[in-house]
Amino acid sequence: MYENLPVAVSLLAKQGSDAFLLNVVESLYGTLKEQVEITGK
């Protein structure tokens, strides 16, 4: 993990190859993390 993202995603971001995909992954990750936290309570 690097900055709360899987290393593969971080490498894509560093190369600047697909900013849109990175934004989608970040959004989904945040949403899924919230759902897991809510479910865990």
Structure notes:
The chain is mainly alpha-helical and 41 residues long. The chain has one domain (7-40). Helix content is 76%, strand content 0%. The chain is built from 2 helices and no strands. The protein has helices at 7-15, 19-40. The chain is elongated and about 35 Å long. The model has no long low-confidence stretch (mean pLDDT 71).
Key terms:
41 residues, 2 helices, 76% helix, 0% strand
Q: Gap between N and C termini, in Å?
A: 24 Å
Shape: elongated
The low-confidence parts are none
Task: Report the order of strands and helices.
Answer: HH
Broad structural category: mainly alpha
Q: Summarize model confidence as the mean pLDDT.
A: 71
User: Quick one: how many beta strands?
Assistant: 0
Number of DSSP helices? Answer: 2
Total separate domains: 1
Give the helix level as a range of percent.
Answer: over 70%
- Measured on Cα atoms, how large is the radius of gyration? 12 Å
> What is the strand content?
under 5%
Q: What's the main sheet like? A: none
Summarize the structure.
The chain has 41 residues and is mainly alpha-helical. It has helices at residues 7-15, 19-40.
